[in-house]
Amino acid sequence: MTVTVAAAERLIRIGEVARGAGVSVRAVRYYEQQGLLIAERSPSGQRLYRQDAIPLVRFFQQMFAAGLTSRRIAELLPCWDSGHTDAEQRAMLRAERERIQAKIDDLQAALDHLDEVIAVTDTHP
Amino acid sequence: MTVTVAAAERLIRIGEVARGAGVSVRAVRYYEQQGLLIAERSPSGQRLYRQDAIPLVRFFQQMFAAGLTSRRIAELLPCWDSGHTDAEQRAMLRAERERIQAKIDDLQAALDHLDEVIAVTDTHP
DNA sequence: CTAAAACCTGACGCTAGCGTCAGAGGCAAG
DNA sequence: CTTGCCTCTGACGCTAGCGTCAGGTTTTAG
């Protein structure tokens, strides 16, 4: 039988978050400034994060790569922070989904185009 | 039997290029500044383009969307302007191809991630 | 205790693909 | 000839996600 004793999670500092997520310390501070990642503060003022900040930062990176702005991500954060979502947020989720899908299609077209060129330049150098 | 009489192609001005390709006039001038699109000049100094400038500009847009810089595009232009390509250019083509493919994979992962969130927020609003 | 490493708050810099404004000339129509 | 649209050359502005330096405090290793 296992008992959960409200294990006081070990808090980590900004450097560990940055290394863990593969980004710069500056980037993590920037995310806070944009309202994406709220940190506790130690008595001396240092930022303290829970360990799930690391996958969260990775997720931000993924969304950035998908073309979302930090503002958009901030607006959508409630969708998986809490389970609560309103109609507007769900609509935004769908809209972003469509944007990403369209972007994938564009990239695939560009890839096909490049592949044609590669084929030509290979057989006909 | 058909005879090609070196038909003096009708040259078009910058506005027609821009409208035809769906970009701004400013963008077309920018492409020239970056060495992507060389235009003839009328006696009064106006830019004159051949009609294939329109698909060419569309192609630039596609490459920009795929994350290529104007410098890269300029370096790769010989690959389909002429049929001539050297080993370095073919390597660059392949490298860009891989970059785009990796980007597509990233986007697909982001899309899957978003779809999960959408599924959750739909069944559990 | 001390030196190194990590952290803090500003604040300016950078890139890339244009947008935009200023001021001046070109061109077909009426 | 003039009205109105198109084009020209600079040249500064903008956005977004950080990089980077300055100057100072804090934490950690030995």
Structure description:
The structure is a homodimer of 125-residue chains. Chain A has 125 residues and is mainly alpha-helical. Helices cover 62% and strands 3% of the residues of chain A. The first copy, chain A, contains six helices and two strands, in the order ααββαααα. Chain A has helices at residues 14-21, 25-33, 53-65, 70-76, 78-81, 87-123, and strands at residues 40-41, 47-48. Chain A has a two-stranded antiparallel ribbon. In chain A, α1 (14-21) packs across α2 (25-33). The longest helix of chain A is centred in the C-terminal third of the chain and has 37 residues, at 87-123. Chain A is extended, with a radius of gyration of 20 Å. Chain A starts with 13 loop residues before the first helix and ends with a helix. The mean pLDDT of chain A is 91. Chain A binds a DNA duplex (30 and 30 nucleotides) through α2.
Oligomer type: homodimer
| Biggest interface | A-B, 35 and 35 residues
Major sheet attributes of chain A: 2 strands, antiparallel
Number of helices of chain A: 6
Low-confidence stretches of chain A at least 5 residues in length (pLDDT < 50)?
none
Q: Structural class of the helices, strands and pairings of chain A?
A: mainly alpha
- Alpha-carbon Rg of chain A, integer: 20 Å
- Described by the principal axes of the CA atoms, the overall outline of chain A is extended
Instruction: Measure the end-to-end span of chain A.
Output: 71 Å
β-sheet strand percentage of chain A: under 5%
Task: Give the helix level of chain A as a range of percent.
Answer: 55-70%
Count of strand segments of chain A: 2
- Name the average pLDDT of chain A: 91
- Strand line-up of the largest beta sheet of chain A: 1-2
From N to C, what is the helix and strand string of chain A? HHEEHHHH
